[in-house]
């Protein structure tokens, strides 16, 4: 079943066309990878889908609903949650608190609820604590729950970001370069975590430069180059696609 | 309960016991000794209320306000006018003044809290200056720079807290209520959102936290604390003037926050008590008093940069994890 359908999505910044009529469909349960050289428009594509940017033209359908141009928070509330390359953790808060803050959209209550703590608030807080624990277990950070996030090694900080995004209760999790800067060991752990999340029935779309990870995980791949989709297919198909090889290695070497 | 806190339960118990013992000893001394020590403690407790509110805005939400004295002035003059001129019950005057402060904080905060960093600091600073000017100019209401005297002590109906000791006891209860409220807020969805904003606005925003709205609410709550502190001051001294709520209030409260431990629950209270008593302890130095006072503050900030509250977490855990409360 199609979960996300991107059709003819275009975004231009002045004269620069960052995304040029990009279309692809994402099935429920996919681990879908978007790859391409630097500046190919991958992050722009993520920004268009998640509502950070409005597309110039084209549309995004999610679960049969048009979400083109909706506000970021509304899209997140529908279950499309993403991690950002540049957005940091709450470094001085504990690992557990980072995940608990992630529950913001999935919970409710303001000052009154905080002061008087009626039954539903206490139940909700208990739920937040328990589910935070579960998510930390999922990414393998349970034993570091009380540690200040800043003290985590780089690779584990990345896992914490994913756990924090998971707290919002995504149906579609968008990961922007989750393996950037990780070593092989850390990347392998990351791959396992992504697989475990996917096993829970959560559809994943990721931008990634680490080809080993992409080839290992992805069910389907879209390749962007200069804002255009130049190929789509399974890892095996994409690997041997001449247009992809040309984009990555340069035309001259192939001729 | 986490595994970690179960292991560290024992030092936590000891540290709590020690902190309570220090507080009880101090209170026993203050109430036993009486006189000016009670006055100093009264100011410390009033400032304790003030900085507990400011801490929500500055310590948790990470925003700077140099104009919180404006709301203390509103509370002080509100109580003075309503009690002395209109004969209202102190509690009614306090609530009315705090409500007015909240409304004004909402109106003023709506445009200013869109500013960040230095710009927010400047805008809030102006707020304090404007209030100062108004309290001098509106002499029909405030009696101008001569000050407003004849404010009755705190009381209820015909019952008045005539002794400073009795007022101090009630003040301590008010302060504990303030700390309790801050604690409830801290351990909630609302409090977590403030902490998130304090650390990284883009990250908070990405998680669906409405940054501006939360900042505004924190600002309004801090204004209510400041207003209550102002009302308490008016009752305690019986006299207020524009100077009382001047710039020195800002510098003093910042000192208390940083010396005590900004972003912690009890740190601001500890800071308020220490900073209030320090000049008294140093009176023996006579002419050198101010210099020694400043040196003492500098030494504290060098050796305990995260404030007195970090001594607590040092006792509880070996790592340099900042204190939770």
Can you give a write-up of this model?
The complex is a heterodimer of chains A (255) and B (325). By secondary structure, chain A is α/β, with parallel strands linked by helices. Chain A folds into two domains: 2-79 and 170-254, Rossmann fold; 90-153, no CATH class. Chain A has helices at residues 42-50, 72-77, 95-102, 111-116, 119-139, 154-166, 184-199, 211-217, 235-239, 242-249, 251-254, and strands spanning 2-13, 16-27, 31-35, 57-62, 65-66, 80-82, 172-176, 203-207, 220-225, 228-233. In chain A, the strands form two sheets. Chain A has a six-stranded mixed β-sheet with strand order 6-7-8-3-9-10, sandwiched between helices. In chain A, strand 7 (172-176), helix 7 and strand 8 form a beta-alpha-beta unit. In chain A, helix 3 (95-102) crosses helix 5 (119-139), helix 5 crosses helix 6 and helix 6 (154-166) packs parallel to helix 7. Chain A is globular. The model of chain A has no long low-confidence stretch (mean pLDDT 90). By secondary structure, chain B is mainly alpha-helical. Chain B has a single domain (9-316), classed as ABC transporter involved in vitamin B12 uptake, BtuC. In chain B, 74% of the residues lie in helices and 2% in strands. Chain B has 15 helices and four strands. Chain B has helices at residues 3-7, 9-33, 36-60, 69-85, 90-112, 117-137, 139-142, 164-186, 189-199, 201-206, 211-237, 247-260, 267-281, 289-303, 308-316, and strands spanning 148-149, 155-156, 159-160, 239-240. The longest helix of chain B is centred in the C-terminal third of the chain and has 27 residues, at 211-237. Chain B is globular, with a radius of gyration of 20 Å. Mean pLDDT of chain B is 88; it is low at 318-325. The chains are: A alpha/beta (255), B mainly alpha (325). The interface between A and B is large, with 43 and 31 residues.
């Amino acid at each position: 079943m199609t979960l996300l359908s991107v059709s003819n999505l275009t975004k231009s910044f002045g004269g620069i066309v960052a995304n040029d009529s990009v279309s692809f469909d994402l099935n429920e349960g996919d681990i879908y990878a978007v790859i391409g050289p630097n500046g190919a428009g991958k992050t722009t594509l993520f920004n268009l889908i998640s509502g950070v940017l409005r597309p110039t033209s084209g549309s995004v359908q999610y679960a049969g609903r048009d979400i083109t141009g909706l506000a970021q928070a509304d899209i997140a509330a529908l279950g499309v949650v993403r991690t950002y390359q540049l957005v940091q953790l709450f470094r001085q808060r504990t690992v557990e608190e980072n995940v608990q803050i992630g529950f913001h959209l999935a919970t409710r209550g303001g000052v009154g609820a905080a002061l008087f703590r009626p039954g539903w608030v206490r139940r909700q807080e208990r739920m937040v604590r328990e589910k935070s624990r579960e998510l930390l277990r999922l990414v393998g950070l349970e034993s570091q729950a009380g540690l200040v996030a800043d003290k985590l090694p780089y690779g584990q900080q990345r896992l914490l970001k994913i756990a924090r995004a998971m707290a919002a209760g995504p149906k579609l999790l968008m990961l922007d370069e989750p393996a950037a800067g990780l070593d092989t060991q850390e990347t392998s752990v990351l791959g396992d975590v992504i697989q475990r999340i996917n096993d829970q029935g959560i559809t994943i779309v990721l931008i990634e430069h680490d080809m080993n990870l992409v080839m290992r995980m992805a069910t389907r791949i879209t390749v962007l180059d200069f804002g255009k989709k130049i190929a789509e297919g399974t890892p095996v198909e994409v690997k041997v696609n001449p247009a992809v090889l040309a984009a990555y290695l340069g035309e001259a070497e192939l001729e | 309960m986490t595994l970690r806190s179960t292991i560290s339960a024992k030092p936590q118990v000891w540290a709590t016991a020690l902190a309570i013992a220090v507080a009880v000893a101090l209170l026993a001394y203050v109430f036993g000794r009486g006189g000016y020590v009670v006055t100093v403690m009264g100011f410390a407790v009033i400032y304790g209320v003030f900085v507990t509110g400011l801490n929500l805005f500055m310590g948790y939400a990470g925003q700077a306000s140099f104009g919180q004295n404006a709301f203390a002035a509103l509370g002080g003059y509100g109580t003075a006018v309503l009690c002395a001129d209109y004969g209202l019950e102190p509690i009614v005057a306090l609530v009315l003044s705090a409500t007015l402060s909240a409304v004004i904080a909402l109106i003023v905060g709506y445009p200013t809290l869109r500013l960040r960093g230095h710009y927010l600091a400047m805008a809030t600073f102006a707020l304090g200056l404007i209030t100062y000017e108004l309290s001098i100019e509106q002499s029909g209401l405030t009696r101008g720079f001569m000050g407003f005297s004849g404010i009755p002590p705190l009381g209820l109906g015909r019952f008045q807290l005539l002794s400073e000791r009795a007022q101090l006891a009630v003040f301590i209860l008010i302060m504990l209520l303030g700390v309790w409220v801050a604690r409830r807020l801290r351990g909630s969805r609302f409090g977590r959102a403030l902490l998130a904003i304090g650390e990284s606005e883009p990250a908070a925003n990405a998680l669906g936290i409405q940054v501006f709205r939360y900042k505004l609410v924190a600002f309004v709550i801090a204004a209510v604390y400041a207003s209550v502190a102002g009302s308490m001051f008016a009752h305690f001294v019986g006299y207020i003037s524009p100077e009382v709520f001047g710039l020195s209030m800002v510098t003093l409260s910042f000192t208390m926050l940083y010396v005590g431990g900004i972003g912690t629950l009890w740190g601001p209270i500890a800071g308020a008590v220490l900073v209030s008593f320090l000049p008294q302890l140093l009176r023996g130095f006579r002419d050198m008093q101010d210099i020694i006072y400043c040196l003492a503050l500098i030494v504290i900030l060098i050796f305990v940069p995260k404030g007195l509250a970090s001594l607590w977490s040092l006792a509880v855990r070996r790592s340099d994890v900042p204190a939770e409360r």
